[in-house]
Amino acid sequence: MLILFSSKLKAQEKPVSKSKFVFGISAPELIHVGLNYRISNSNLIGGSFGLGPSLGTIWTSISLEHRLYVGKNSQSTNQKTWFFRQGTTFFPQARSPRQFTFNLSVGKDFVFRNIKNGFTIDAGVFYLPDSESSSIILIRSLNLWPSLRFQFYFSNK
């Protein structure tokens, strides 16, 4: 009887897709679109392509990321929502050594009523080599810039 009851409860759970289409705006990823894949409850990998206007030209970016999820599972999705994010962004138009950034941030996933969709907010820093002459840099001697990202995610499953 208990096995029958537990299998009915399992069948009523709403499965959450591991693949998500994302779009957002951020520094350094610019206005971007991409795809994320949740490997496990604690790990996600993703990639995106971005565009951003800059003094009469359009900058492009290609980004890769990994998220390490921590904390308790959300009641609605049964997945962790707080994460540490590590990543890199490549700017094809930039001159070396400013072509690559290294990104570190902390964030949270927020689920919409339809648990397949939601948004992410994360904040932290990114390292951009040889950029200490900028006026908006966070820590000039370390080439650290502020990082902030708003990203929506959607799944078709």
Give a brief description.
The protein has 157 residues and is mainly beta. Helices cover 7% and strands 58% of the residues.
Supply the key terms.
157 residues, 8-stranded antiparallel β-barrel, 1 helix
Protein architecture, described:
This protein is mainly beta. The protein has 1 helix and 8 strands; from the N terminus they run αββββββββ. It has one helix at 2-12; strands spanning 19-27, 30-38, 43-54, 57-73, 80-90, 100-111, 118-127, 144-154. It has an 8-stranded antiparallel beta barrel. A hairpin with a 2-residue loop joins β1 (19-27) and β2. It is globular and about 50 Å long.
Write the layout of secondary structure elements.
Blueprint: H1 2-12, E1 19-27, E2 30-38, E3 43-54, E4 57-73, E5 80-90, E6 100-111, E7 118-127, E8 144-154
Antiparallel strand pairs: 1-2, 1-8, 2-3, 3-4, 4-5, 5-6, 6-7, 7-8
What is the number of beta strands?
8
- Total of helices: 1
**Biggest β-sheet strands, sense, barrel:** 8 strands, antiparallel, barrel
Mean pLDDT: 88
Could you give the order of strands across the largest sheet?
1-2-3-4-5-6-7-8
Low-confidence stretches: 4-12
